[in-house]
Please model this.
Amino acid sequence: MEPGGKAFENSVLLTNIQRFSLHDGPGIRTTVFLKGCSLRCPWCSNPENLSGVPQAYTKDGLDGVYGEYMAQDALAEVCLRDKGFYGEKNGSWDIKNAGEISSLPGGVTFSGGECLLQMDRLVPVCETLHRNGVHIAAETCLFVQPSALGLAIKYIDFFYADVKILDETRCREEEKGDLKLYLSNLGMLLDSGRPVAIRIPVIGGYTDGAGDRRAARDLMEKYKRKILKIELVKGHNLGEEKYRSLGMPVPRYMDVDDRQMENYREELSGLHIPVEICRI
Ligand code: SF4
Model:
């Protein structure tokens, strides 16, 4: 399907639907990877999700395209196929008081890229999923228009929100982001009362310095009563093949070892927010 026209308006651009995910929110989930991102993080492991249009690639001598426009009702139908594995989201489902969230009923997670860039197109999908009692999560960098975030707060039950480079100049130059927009959106999301887990990618040379860690800690301190948990996420180079398939240079950054990750966790321990070290 080509961009433009009514069919395009009623569709979502995605690159993958991953069933039986265990690390994208409570329980067993279906994770939908939306194509298009507002940032250009130098360590990104999902280069196929950066551009907001389908992209030709070549891998192992075979040609393909990253990105497919899927009709909203078709996407909802695919997500509902695994409803039996999600478990029931009954009226008392309460993530804030549930303790370990992995033991809770699952659902659908929108990821990316930046999934909220297509939030208006996700609304009918969310309405269908909610009608069927399915829990919805989103993974977001929060570099989006406040109107998109407002819609997301209305329709998304649980958020993973990133904390990355917190220096205004470096955010602009290294990630191509507007830090003021991000900080405003983070406040809006946390003040909304929706449950939010913070994800901090710990990337050598970008987010692991003493100043980076201090800035992240200060931000978490400000909102500590509104944050469900913090995940420290170690960088990985799993996107190398995808960069090559797109003819893009493979990003390089310094490794952060387990000891440094543990030290970072200890630095955050005084906040009394649960902190996990993850590799995603
Ligand atoms: S926000 Fe995520 S998907 Fe977007 S560039 Fe950064 S790491 Fe990649």
